[in-house]
Amino acid sequence: MLKVIIALISGILFGAGMIISGMVSPTKVIGFLNITGNWDPSLAFVMGGALAVFTPFYHLLIKKRSHAINGEKFSCTSNTKIDGQLISGAAIFGAGWGVAGFCPGPAMASLAGGSLTIFIFILSMLAGIIFAKQYLQGRLPLPFMGQRKKTCTI
Amino acid sequence: MENFTPWSALAGGALLGLSASLLMLFAGKIAGISGIIGGLLTPQKGEFKWRLAFAVGMVISLFILIPFAIELPELVNQPPVYIVIAGILVGFGTRLANGCTSGHGIIGMGRFSKRSVVATCVFMTVAAFVVLLRQQFGAL
């Protein structure tokens, strides 16, 4: 139960952070990515602000614990392999992010605004997630990717 | 630089960091949005309710901010086909890379995970390159 309440509170804080920071504005996202044009560095401050809170919190309070406060193990991955799947996935995500200026967090935080664009984006993203799961299970042949991974950890 | 908004960006970013910190300290979970949404599509025992609660929290956060006169920005009209392509690429790519701007960019970077540093550099670079192409050629 604690887990669900904490998740709800964290979700609200996360959504509020996305809206207040300006990440929900594709114009601002594109302005940040447009480094050779009229560059708007604001979004570097979003990541800076998030890291300024999370990094010390993690290294001072979380890292030395063996379990979370509710008794569960930390679900951090121990995978340290930098492989083709990580690189190609990040590149594909980056391409999508650059095309429309939306990434998953801001899209979710904007959903309640009732915009059709956001709705279409989220539906397409869900389709992309399903394709990826099929692909990672070897059921979707994409020869140009050159990979057939059997496992899919969330 | 006329649209530069460092203070609201910092404040919002701090909230993202606080959210990720609380979720990990209290529940041991990673506030990675692509992972949370992906997990909702393939429910696993003990992993569904918290993900749903987080997603609901994200969606209702807007209603909590509206009384403070904070609103969503007007969206610039983009051709729907761009939105569909972008969504599919974002969904597919984040599941392959096992994370997006939140999971890799905040939590992984904060943990000094090499994978996340590499992933963040790659998606930032590719996204900036796509924007550059769109600026140069008007469309893509």
| Spatial extent as radius of gyration of chain B | 17 Å
Total of helices of chain A: 6
Distance between the first and last residues' Cα of chain B: 25 Å
| Low-confidence regions of chain B | none
Number of domains of chain A: 2
- What are the secondary-structure elements of chain B, in order, as H or E? HHHHHH
Write down the secondary-structure element order of chain A: HHHHHH
The major β-sheet of chain A equals:
none
Low-confidence parts of chain A, pLDDT < 50 over ≥5 residues? 148-154
Strand content of chain A: under 5%
Question: Which descriptor suits the 3D outline of chain B?
Answer: globular
Q: What's the helix and strand layout?
A:
The complex is a heterodimer of chains A (154) and B (140).
Chain A: H1 2-21, H2 26-33, H3 42-62, H4 84-100, H5 104-110, H6 116-136
Chain B: H1 6-27, H2 33-41, H3 49-65, H4 80-97, H5 103-110, H6 114-137
Helix pairs in contact in B: 2-3, 5-6
